[in-house]
Specification:
The structure is a single chain. The protein is mainly alpha-helical. It has one domain. It is built from three helices and no strands. The longest helix is centred in the C-terminal third of the chain and has 42 residues.
Length: 102
């Protein structure tokens, strides 16, 4: 029970921290900010084209919306995976660094 509670608390911490990091990246990292704008612009273009082509391909609008949603989920999961791996790596890097100092 305690392990599950701690796991849930840690999951919430990771989610909140990753969200904060990405928000800061959107402010402080020009490359990330540019990529975010490009992704948004591409989605906007797709959303303009989809209704025009809806008569020919009725499933297109739903497909574009599904793609956008799943791409956002994938991006969030990738950020979370990288953050968790960074936490694991940090202890290894610290040990290696301390070994070099001794």
């Amino acid at each position: 029970m305690l392990k599950r509670l701690l796991s849930q608390a840690f999951d919430q911490y990771v989610f909140t921290r990753v969200d904060h990091i990405l928000n800061q990246a959107g402010i402080n990292d020009a490359g990330y900010r540019k990529t975010s704008r490009e992704v948004s612009a591409a989605l906007d273009r797709l959303l303009v084209v989809a209704p025009v082509l809806k008569a020919q391909q009725p499933e297109l609008t739903g497909l574009v919306m599904d793609f956008e949603a799943w791409a956002a989920v994938e991006s969030g999961q990738a950020a979370e995976i990288a953050y968790r791996q960074g936490l694991r790596d940090s202890s290894h890097v610290r040990r290696e660094f301390m070994t070099c100092l001794i």
